[in-house]
Structure formats: C-alpha cells, structure tokens
UniProtKB/TrEMBL annotation, chains A, B:
EC number: 2.3.1.35, 2.3.1.1
Lineage of producing organism: Bacteria, Pseudomonadati, Pseudomonadota, Alphaproteobacteria, Sphingomonadales
Binding site for substrate: 158, 184, 195, 282, 405, 410
Function: Catalyzes two activities which are involved in the cyclic version of arginine biosynthesis: the synthesis of N-acetylglutamate from glutamate and acetyl-CoA as the acetyl donor, and of ornithine by transacetylation between N(2)-acetylornithine and glutamate.
Protein name from the UniProt record: Arginine biosynthesis bifunctional protein ArgJ
Subunit structure: Heterotetramer of two alpha and two beta chains.
Reaction equation(s) it catalyzes: N(2)-acetyl-L-ornithine + L-glutamate = N-acetyl-L-glutamate + L-ornithine; L-glutamate + acetyl-CoA = N-acetyl-L-glutamate + CoA + H(+)
Recorded family membership: Belongs to the ArgJ family.
A Pfam family that the UniProt record links to this protein: ArgJ
PANTHER family reported for this sequence: ARGININE BIOSYNTHESIS BIFUNCTIONAL PROTEIN ARGJ, ARGININE BIOSYNTHESIS BIFUNCTIONAL PROTEIN ARGJ, MITOCHONDRIAL
Superkingdom of source: Bacteria
Biological or metabolic pathway of the protein: Amino-acid biosynthesis; L-arginine biosynthesis; N(2)-acetyl-L-ornithine from L-glutamate: step 1/4; Amino-acid biosynthesis; L-arginine biosynthesis; L-ornithine and N-acetyl-L-glutamate from L-glutamate and N(2)-acetyl-L-ornithine (cyclic): step 1/1
Species this protein is from: Sphingomonas colocasiae
Length: 410, 410
C-alpha cells in the first residue's frame, strides 16, 4: 500500500521532550520488510529501573505479549526491544524462539537476565520474526549512537502517519519528576485494554507494585476508552519504566507523599498518548468525544459509550457531517444496557437535539451543522436513570479506512 | 442519496410465488417521502388467521414494535400495514398516536379489533409518521386492486436494491401447504434477532402457540445469524401468519403429524430470507459464510463467528480479495470466548491456511486466491476444544457502504 498522508488530526509538530536519566535510546535497520528505514528500537535502562505493564486480553496473543506477561511480576527491567513490520503473532514455536533469542542476545550484551529484557513487535500476523535479521539488527543497535525520542517514536511506527509522544511532570517532595511516553497505533485499535504499543519512561523512583497499580488505574479511563475500529490487536502492550534517577524518596503506596501527583501525571500521560492514537486512526477525519451520563453505573455508561463509538452508522454519519442522532438512539438501544427511550437526551456539541424520547421541536440546526463541519466532534447522551458516567474517544469511518485495509497485506 | 445499483449479489430474478389462500395484498402511495412510488402495503388476512412474531431486543424500539409485542399474545391477525420511508421510531406520543390511528382505521374498515392489525414501519428515525398521509394512504389501499407478491415486496423497500421473496412447501397428511415470505433490509442489520422487516404467510392451519415456537426456533439459526454492519435496528420485526385455508388438520404441537415438515419449511424460509438481506447488504460485493467448529458450546461458536463476521478488518480484507487470515486470528482472540491459539485451524474455501497455531508451511495460495476472487466466500475456523459449532453469514465492507451511509439523511 502507499503510505497515507499525515493525518489531518495530527498535532502541529513533535513536542519538546526532556531526556530521562537512566534511559538510553538506540535504533537500527533490521529490515523486517523490504524497506530502508530503522525498524528496531533498543532501549537500555539503568540498573534499579522498575517496570509495570498492561497487555492485550486477546485469547490469541503474540509470544511477545506472553513474554512480557511472564516477566512483569519481577517488576524490574534493563532493556526494551521493539520490532516494527512483523507482529510475530500466530507463529508457533518459531515465534517463541525468536523472542527468546532476542532477550538472550540483549541480556548477554548488558550482562543481565533475559527476563530483564522486554520485547514488543507489531506488523503483519502469521509470519515468524526472522531470528537472523533480529540478531543482526540488535548487534547494529548495540554499537549505534544514542538517538532522541523522535527517532524512537518513528522507528516503532507501522501504518502510523506521524510520530506520537507526550511529556508530563509531577512534584515529589523537593524533586520534580518527568514522564515521557511514546506510542504507535492506527488500526486494529479497540478497547480491550490498549492501543497497540505504548512505552512510558520516568526518572521517578516508584516501587514496582505501586507503578503497576497506578498504570492499571490510568489505563481504564484512557487506553481502554478509545476505539478506532473495534478490532483488538493480538499485540497490545503498554509498559511503564521508572529509573529512579530523580532522587526522590521512593514511593511505595498511594499514601506516600507525591503519590497523587504521580498518579495524575501518569493518567494524563496515558490520556495524551491514547488521544494521539485516535488522531492517527486509519482514514480518520474527525476526532470524536462521546460522553454518556445518567447511566445506572459507570460500567454501564462505558459500554453504551463504546456501542456508540463502534457503530459504523454513527461513524459514517459523522464522516458525512450529518447530525443523524437517530443512529445514536439505535446504538444506545443495541448496547444491551439499561436505557429508557423516553428518558433519553442527545446533544451534538452544545446543542440539545433530542430530549425525553423525541426530537427537540425546531432546534437550531445551524450550530449543529457548524459543529459537525469541525474536526473535533462532541456527542453527549444522558440516560436519565442514575449517576453513572463515562467518556470515550473515537474517530469517524471514511473511504480512507477502506482504502488502507482493503489492500494492507498486498 | 442516489439509489445504488442492484446488488451484484442479487439473484437472477424474482421467484415464482403461489397465491396464499386467505391473504390479499394491496399497495398505495402515502408519499411519506418526496417520491412517487407506493410506500404503504395493506395485507388483509381472512378470519381464523393465526399470528406469531419475533421483534428487536433494542431498548429503544419503535412504537410499531411495541404495538406488535402487545398484540402477539392474542395470536390472531386480520391485517398487516407496512410503511416505508419513515420508521416512526423515537417520536414519543405522536409516534404512538400514529400507530393507534392506523390500527383503528384498518380495524374499522375490516370490522375487527385494532389489536388484530399489525403495523411495521422503516426509514428515517425521529420523524413522527404523519397521520394524515397514513390515513389517506390507507383509504387509497382499501379501494385499490389486489396486487401480487412482487409489488408488495417492492413497496416495503427503503435502501434495498432488489425485491426479496422466497417460497417453501410442506406436506401435512394429505395436504401440501405453502409458505411465502417477503423481506426488506440492507443496512442497520445485526443479529439481535432479525433483519429489519420480514413477513411470512402460509395457508397451513397452525395453532398460534406452536407457530410462535416454530418461528422462534427458526429465527435463531437464520435471522439471528446474519450481520451486515453490527448495527441493530429499532424496528426489527419478523411476523408469520397462517390462514388455515389449506384444510389440513390443524397442528398444535411438535408431536403432531407434519409438524417436523412445517418446522423444516419455516426454517428454510427464514434462512432464504435472511440470506437475501445479506445479499443486499449496503455496498456488499461478497457473500461470506463463516463456520466455527470445535468450540466449547454452540453459543460460544456463535459468538466467535459473529466476532469474525463483524470485524471491519476481516470484512475489508475480503473486499480486497486478500487471504489475510491473521485478521481472523485477531477476531477469534477478541471474542472473549474460550480459545487456544495453538489449537486453532483456519480455512478459506477448501484450503487449510493455518493449523495448530501457525501457518501451514507453503500452502497452495492459488486456490485461495481463486476462491477470494469469487462472490461466495467461505471461512472455516476450528478451535479444537469441543463439539460446539455455528454458521453465520455476512458481506464485505466496501467503499459502497461508506458512500451510502455518509450521506443517507442528507
């Protein structure tokens, strides 16, 4: 396929990102596909770095996901290897052997345990990752010059149209700690935990158990609240690494000083990264925020919001800049959650278009039409039943999505 | 929107259908939209006709659906009124008043109870059905010449590109009974019971309780096993009417002579009608049959098959004639049902492409490519876990779907 142009929803440029003490980035050409670009990222993490992660719930996960799932309970990390262009998923023993070979080679280079090495890969499914290319790529990376965040963010991309990264900060006692995250993902994005690949690095000192609890908490309202096409990847992985180089008193529980600030910074980071994925949704021309209120519970609100966000008819209506709120009613009705038609209210932008189970008599269509012509769309649904609420984010469904996916592998 | 061309998956022509004694069809112009076509269908049923139905499970059903739900327990019918171009859904009291007015006027004309009159409407959501147009249309229909099945099948259409009907027969004792069905539906099709509107007529004598049990049984493996876009309509309705004019000894239980033959004919009828809806799926260029075997249960197989059938990435791959079985793995993995990657086998047409959790070494891609170039696609998935099996039917996802739905209301 021809690489589509930079998403119209992409931010102006790449953000200014600080270095994170204890993190060294390198990239190399493993040439997993017939392309002349860096496609292997090798991140070294200084001793003492703690790790946490959330992984796809797919019943057919990649061997990389299984490797990370086995390594996470130890809570420590010395390296991260990311391959682009081949997901190595559904490749049986050969795929598992490739992951083991990568971890072993990186561990030998760093003098650490293979279980200290985290591995992630995305790209085509069903083709075993070639071990010879991976090892040659790693060897090249070991001796490469250290690079910056933008090179790393570019090297993990597949069908992405722009590099995605964010920075947040928090104060712990007398130290300011920084979080830098990079993410990739554009299609096969659905909320069964995550985008495809996200990596977060901080110089804060955080005990691994707390880091895991904080990442899991941050995930639910961020990566688990986005969808591009309802299709959950076999490789979804979000990992967080804390080097401790900021010199703050290590925090180990939510009661420790600074823990709230760290949780806020981590959640903000995850939200920024999740939004960047939606903004690079395959074929996307509109960024859509859907807020459901008045549900019987937050979980119920979340499921109804996703039913709307995953509806092809809602997504195509937005693509057509058509305030077709009847399709929103349909999506609420099919969600299978408690709802009463005659208590339902729907809003596009700031304009109430339906309330009490029917259209608002002669509502002003002008502001609605103007809102839908924009790139940032807001849909609000109130069920009038309880206090449950949730917000999810998605993009519209356009000819671009069909073009990208009807000839992806070819 | 401009009416799209006849679906490439449409059958050659319209079938030869027998008259059903006790059923009289009439059509008229209510002009629910700015079009010059018949859009109101009035079916009279002779006294003694029994009725059964299955209705959408949407939490936001149309008042027509609520009306039918209330009338069905009585099990008898004297008339059916079908409106095209306006679903009357989400219109509050005005919508309910329109349905009551239609039933009252038809009942007065026939000298029956309003509850003997079934009403169904499809089209745009949120616009109250204009009572004056409905009553004028009814009055015109009362005095119109009786028409044939094709006229009725055409009059219930909205975005459909061809008239859909089928015939089946069964022998009860010394009588042969006939079933004739008509159906409409093309978008907003998802398996939460049914297509949008389906009507089945038979001259058999069947007690209403048994007719309902038989229709519900037939529905599960037919209308509930199709999906075009995963979007469940607010108006889904399938009704069956038995006039008893064939003179067979009325059947009242599954143990009665001929009951098995009638169930088979009714199920065959529902399957034929369901397939016709998929063949008119918005933008469809391929008819896809997905069979899942080796699941832990039939229900589990059904959910996994629908996860594949509703996957935009699977549907776009088929549109691109790409044997991208990795996307099938993804869809199995995301279904949330018991599955073991390393026991999974996948087949396109007759060719096994993956087994035991990895690609079949050097499988012959030629027959797969040839199969995908056809209009009838078969995907087989074996989970290797148990005896559960299910088959569902869908169509591919093409630019046509986007074009139709990005400017439907406009």
């Amino acid at each position: 396929m021809t690489q589509p142009a930079r998403s119209p929803l992409a931010p102006e440029g790449f953000p200014d990102l600080p270095a994170i003490a204890g993190v060294t980035l390198r990239v190399a050409r493993a040439r997993y596909k017939a392309w002349d670009r860096c496609d292997l990222t090798f991140v070294t993490l200084d001793p003492g770095t703690t790790a946490a992660g959330v992984l796809t719930r797919s019943k057919c996960p990649s061997p990389e996901v299984e490797w990370c799932r086995a390594a996470l309970p130890l809570g420590i990390a010395r390296a991260l290897v990311v391959n682009a262009g081949n997901s190595n998923a559904f490749t049986g023993n050969r795929g598992r052997a490739a992951v083991e070979a990568i971890a072993a080679r990186a561990a030998a280079h760093l003098g650490c345990q293979p279980s200290d090495v985290f591995v992630a890969s995305t790209g085509v499914i069903g083709v075993p990752l070639p071990i010879d290319k991976a090892e040659a790529g790693l060897d090249a990376a070991f001796t490469a010059q250290a690079c910056g965040w933008k090179d790393a963010a570019a090297t993990i991309m597949t069908t992405d149209t722009f590099e995605k990264a964010a920075v947040t900060r928090a104060v712990i006692g007398d130290r300011t700690v920084s979080f830098v995250g990079i993410v990739k993902g554009s299609g096969m994005i659905a909320p069964d935990m995550a985008t495809m690949l996200g990596f977060i690095f901080t110089d804060a000192a955080i005990e691994p158990g707390l880091l895991q609890a904080m990442l899991s908490a941050a995930n639910r309202a961020t990566f688990s609240a986005i969808t591009v096409d309802s299709d959950t990847s076999t490789s979804d992985t979000v990992l967080a690494f804390a080097t401790g180089k900021a010199g703050n008193a290590p925090i180990a529980s939510f009661d420790d000083a600074g823990a709230d600030a760290v949780q806020a910074a981590l959640t903000d980071m995850c939200r920024q990264l999740a939004h960047l994925v939606v903004r690079d949704g395959e074929g996307a021309s509109k960024f859509i925020e859907i807020t459901v209120t008045g549900a019987e519970s937050d979980d119920s609100a979340h499921r109804i919001a996703l039913s709307i966000a995953n509806s092809p008819l809602v997504k195509t209506a937005i693509a057509g800049e058509d305030a077709n709120w009847g399709r929103v009613v349909m999506a609420v009705g099919k969600a299978g959650e408690p709802a009463e038609r005659d208590k339902l209210s729907i809003r596009f932008g700031a304009t109430q278009v339906a309330t009490g189970g029917l259209a608002v008599e002669g509502y002003d269509e002008a502001p609605v039409a103007a809102h839908l012509k924009g790139k940032e769309i807001e849909i609000g649904v109130d069920l009038g039943l309880g206090d449950g609420r949730a917000t999810v984010w998605t993009c519209d469904l356009t000819h671009g999505y069909i073009s990208i996916n009807a000839d992806y592998r070819s």
